[in-house]
Specification:
The complex is a heterodimer of chains A (443) and B (477). Chain A is α/β, with parallel strands linked by helices and 443 residues long. Helix content of chain A is 37%, strand content 15%. In chain A, helix 4 packs antiparallel against helix 12, helix 6 packs parallel to helix 12 and helix 12 (330-367) crosses helix 14. The mean pLDDT of chain A is 96. Helices cover 37% and strands 11% of the residues of chain B. Chain B has 16 helices and 13 strands. Chain B has helices at 44-56, 78-84, 87-90, 102-119, 131-148, 166-173, 191-197, 220-229, 250-253, 284-287, 321-357, 378-384, 388-396, 425-444, 446-450, 463-468; strands at residues 123-125, 156-160, 177-181, 202-207, 233-237, 257-259, 280-282, 294-298, 301-305, 362-363, 373-376, 404-405, 414-417. In chain B, helix 5 crosses helix 6. The model of chain B has no long low-confidence stretch (mean pLDDT 97). Classes of the chains: A alpha/beta (443), B alpha/beta (477). At the A-B interface, helix 1, helix 3, helix 4, helix 5 and helix 6 of A face helix 1, helix 2, helix 3, helix 4 and helix 5 of B.
Chain lengths: 443, 477
Amino acid sequence: MGSYVPSTREQRQEMLKAVGVASFEELYADVPESMRLKEGALNLPDGMSEMEIMARMKSMAGKNKVFTSIFRGAGSYNHYIPSIVKRVTAKEEFVTAYTPYQAEISQGVLQSIFEYQTMICELTGMEVSNASVYDGATAAAEAVAMCRDRKRTKALISAAAHPDLIQTVKTYCEGSNTPVEIIPAKDGKTDLDALSAMLDDSVCCVLIQQPNYFGQLENADQAGVIAHEAGAKYIMSCNPISLGMIKTPAESGADIAVGEGQPLGLSLSFGGPYLGFMACTNALVRKIPGRIVGETTDVDGKRAYVLTLQAREQHIRREKASSNICSNQALCALTASVYLAAMGTKGLQQAAEQSFAKAHYFAAEMAKIPGCELRFSGEFFHEFVTSCPDVPKVMAALEAQGILGGLPLGGELSGCVLWCATEQNSKEEIDRAIAVIKEVCGA
Amino acid sequence: MKLIFESGASGRGCSVLPECDVPVFSLPESMRREKAPNLPQLSENDISRHYTALAGRTHGVNNGFYPLGSCTMKYNPKINEEMAALPGFSSIHPLQPEHTVQGAMEVLYQTEKALCEITGMDGMTFQPAAGAHGEFTGLLLIKAYHKHRGDSKRTKIIVPDSAHGTNPASAAMAGFTVVSIPSQEDGCVDLEKLRAAVGEDTAGLMLTNPNTVGLFDKNILEITKIVHDAGGLNYYDGANLNAVMGISRPGDMGFDVVHLNLHKTFSTPHGGGGPGSGPVGCKALLADFLPGPVVKEEQGQYRFHTPEHSIGRVKSFYGNFAVVVKALTYILTLGAEGIREASQNAVLNANYMMKKLCDLYTMAYDERCMHEFVMSLEPLKKETGISAMDIAKGLLDNGIHPPTMYFPLIVHEALMVEPTETESKETLDEAIEVFRSLYETAKTDPQALHDAPHHTPVRRLDEVGAARNPKLRYSFE
């Protein structure tokens, strides 16, 4: 109904006249007749009023089930989002600006990115962060591209990384003709003996995920040592909440740390928009893709912020750029910053410790149910895999109670479930889920 | 102003989480981080004021005119935001069982149908998160298509020199060799140069139409035919679709694959740099190669399906879903007629501004434009020393976001102006006055423009120093 065009009919006529044409049709004189659509030719419904749209969209939203209790993670995590996060990120200046090309009137966005970069460096322990990429999976793919050179072209990726991450890296590598090999997993972790055997001087990088897809904590230090001994770069994909307590990628020797930033204050939103974070050592700063903000001064000597090191980027280097990325996930990076500011050092640690504790309580209760054994022996963060006597039945019974159960796994782990708990799952909620599972399993 | 790390006090913070209600479990010391991250220690009030101050130092579409060429900075309707925030969309997990997310799948399906109708395509993926991501995805479709046919010779992508930088960068990422062909002065494709460039090694051509000078390439059918006859495919960069929605469809121009920028053409906000959404649509011949999963409808039920020869994923899950919700809200609001009206007025606004400025400013091409036009400040610079940059900085003092500067590369001292359809005649008239008075200033008091901006929170920056001695994070020492 509306098209958000403010000019009145009279004004449009006045403007057409000023331009020197009689009609809108004439404005399109350069479009060959044969490919010009007639008025009304577009097969779309008529426009609607705001009130009608509201009803239509709400009816679609109403067809989705919002679970009150979620025990599913697998790359998308249900953490608590402090109220201030949505208030700040809804500020229209942030929402309606674009990439801060004009630094003088974009200091707000630029400073927020500089602060974000600092927070990502603090979280990961790395030296340099960019301003964000699309998500955790594409961040991993971009990290692999940073490591490739003429001599070393092959990438080794852990089988225990998220399947979407592995697939995305493979797709990107198919593009750049980079061979990818998968490091097998053993007992739910990257098989480091297999890794040693796969390394040679054609390998450019080794990528592992920490905690991995199955929730297990990898022997990250050792993987790094093995990669470096063979002259390969070491990439770690990390869960940012876990960094409230577990060893940082920098402490484990990573050259590049990437990850899915969604747990930092971003809603589930059916998978996006999320946030890819990327950080690296100083040695790799000229290879990191995307926007980077740096500190400088203005002509009056005032401290100020600006997009910098742009010689890496597509608008300058074209086909020789380190990546094609232009638009990123700036508002999601801002979300992560506000989240981290609200949580603070202590709050982040609390979110990590509580997720860890609740997952361990949940796992211990689960292990008491016959047929629901923990599948892997290693230490885990907030996700774990159990066997399950009747996966569809357990899931259906949980769903009937408004509970989203863990993710049923396939392949070699068919009949197993990947469970997740966060600080949002109260003991009462966990006990209720356990009771439902117990009942289905006849215990 | 202060950085967030420079305020606050040790021990201060927000009370967010309750005490833990399950027993504490301990992680072996060897697995713990040695040093806690140094994060802000602020009250909620501190945080709120900090970001309010940062917002005050940010110019968005809501602050004023933003004619940033090639970026389509149109108004971002508020209802779009509210719809994406509905719990039924924002609180659903991407891996919920299909029968619990039928509404979300309907959003993807309906948006695909509408955008395929607008572009003349047959299938679509929403995984790409932005335009450049879409380009990369579309080029991989072209690569897979040739490979599937056993045609391994097609290793080159032709890109005119007027193209966006992302085009050659995406082609390189997709493993192609980039063949750059010079454009005519008006940015249109030089047919002879194109004929000379195509051959057995041509995988495809990347083009935006209207082109980056703001003109609709009249020879478009001939161009796409030359590429098809040589065995290549045609890629449509949707950056400039806002000129021709409901007027002409890339599918009818001979394009085989397109990407759209939902954050430009379909009114979703730019967010200070993102998130966007860059869905890729294609003709039936490429649909089997699309990234999976895509949504299919069977007897009123939606289900996910991975195309038979899929190139694989380019991103987790289904792309920037919330952005798609906003775009669908916009499409449903406008409907068939509103979509056409939006494009018509985008073109009218650009032509009106160009007409009112062309007696002073030199236009790269001055007869008629589409939704944007390019001026060359080269003559003014020769006469007064005032560059495109100086005019841009002068605009800052007048509350106007400058046009895109120094692009396209084929026009010297370029300023690329895209007013969009959501600006009123009054706004355009005021901006025209500002442009005209800056032109006068260039002649009468050039130093004032060399020194501009004067009234912004900071003035011109030392960009060289920023790059020479990179300081990329706050140092706590």
